[in-house]
Write a structure and sequence with these properties.
single chain, alpha/beta, binds 1,3-dihydroxyacetonephosphate, TIM Barrel, 338 residues, 10 strands, globular
Length: 338
């Protein structure tokens, strides 16, 4: 337990408070460039600032969203009125979070697999992010499904790094949002996704325990158990909900304060429907199941904005609608009329 124990516990619980989830707006420079290309706008510093300004200042978000995950550049930018983004969030009662990994590199000797980098200098970076207002931090590990992969070396390497980052976060008074993402891009069945997710989570909690990470002060962010995008047979909503919850129940300790999902390429609506189905069918889980979507919250809003200042108010309404739908889904109360 660190000197920050009480603060960490309060933050972790607040992140997954009833009816709340997290909005991920922490796209790295190459990723936001890809997203902007879909609406034909250039990824200039001002365009990135203007878009994040829209997301951060959307009136009403605080009812549905407990925190937003920022990228390093965003953490240092300000609203059009000159308020630093972390302060603009805190003023609304939304906790600023920060992506602290430095992306993936090919894993040596393991074709098709990657390892997340960013541990060097992390202690110092975390101290600065805390000064800038960060209450929690995210690190994303990527596990790829394919012929003969993931290897146990890939799972081990990535979960080891996740535990090192999580321990450093807690030492710094920042809640780690540990994110192992099993990608959904391949042609695998849902059962393969189940097995790989299960292996990954088992390894993750073993590493967290070995490295003394306090689970009460840790939030898990994870993929749902779904069919690969290219699989001919796509599991339906009930099967995704059932297999995801079964996988989590068999691998995630009850003491974790909450689990949030990434959307991973699911459509905005399906990500909501899946989350809702899990909560409808399982009202008495040991942890809240909520959302920490990037694309599934932002995509409709990004389209509505289209890079034009005259569209900002409408785009903010579109964002708010998705936030509300997912807030309802986290309570098992979503309907298509929401
Ligand atoms: P998606 O919901 O778009 O998968 O992004 C969430 C995220 O933060 C991935 O690290």
């Amino acid at each position: 337990m660190t000197k920050f124990a009480h603060e960490l516990e309060t933050t972790a619980r607040a992140m997954v408070a009833k009816g709340k989830g997290v909005l991920a707006i922490d796209e790295s420079a190459p990723t936001i460039e890809k997203r902007f290309k879909t609406i034909n706008i250039a990824s200039t510093e001002e365009n990135r600032r203007a878009y994040r300004d829209l997301l951060i200042t959307a009136p009403g978000s605080a009812e549905y969203v407990s925190g937003m995950i920022l990228y390093d550049e965003t953490m240092r930018q300000s609203t059009s009125k000159g308020v630093p983004f972390p302060k603009a969030l805190a003023d609304q009662g939304i906790m600023p979070g920060i992506k602290v990994d430095k992306g993936t590199k090919e894993l040596a000797g393991k074709p098709g697999e990657v390892v997340t980098e960013g541990l060097d200098g992390l202690r110092e970076r975390l101290a600065e992010y805390r000064q800038l207002g960060a209450k929690f931090a995210k690190w994303r590990a990527v596990i790829t499904i394919g012929n003969g992969i993931p290897t146990s070396a890939c799972i081990r390497t990535n979960t080891h790094a996740l535990a090192r980052y999580a321990a450093l976060c807690q030492e710094a008074g920042i809640v780690p949002m540990v994110e192992p993402e099993v990608l959904m891009d391949a042609d695998n069945t849902i059962d393969t996704c189940y097995d790989v997710t299960s292996r990954t989570l088992t390894a993750l909690f073993s590493e967290l325990e070995k490295q003394g990470v306090v689970l009460e002060h840790t939030i898990l962010k994870v993929n749902m158990v779904v069919s690969g995008k290219l699989c001919k047979v796509q599991a339906g909503v009930a099967e995704v909900a059932e297999k995801t919850v079964k996988c989590l129940r068999s691998t995630v300790p009850a003491i974790i304060p909450g689990i949030v999902f990434l959307s991973g390429g699911q459509s905005a609506e399906l990500a909501t429907i899946h989350l809702n189905a899990m909560n409808v069918a399982n009202p008495h889980l040991p942890w809240p199941l909520s959302f920490s979507y990037g694309r599934a919250l932002q995509e409709p809003c990004l389209k509505a904005w289209g890079g034009k200042s005259e569209n900002v108010a409408n785009a903010q309404q579109v964002l708010l609608h998705r936030e509300k739908c997912n807030s309802l889904a986290s309570l098992g109360k979503y309907t298509s009329e929401a």
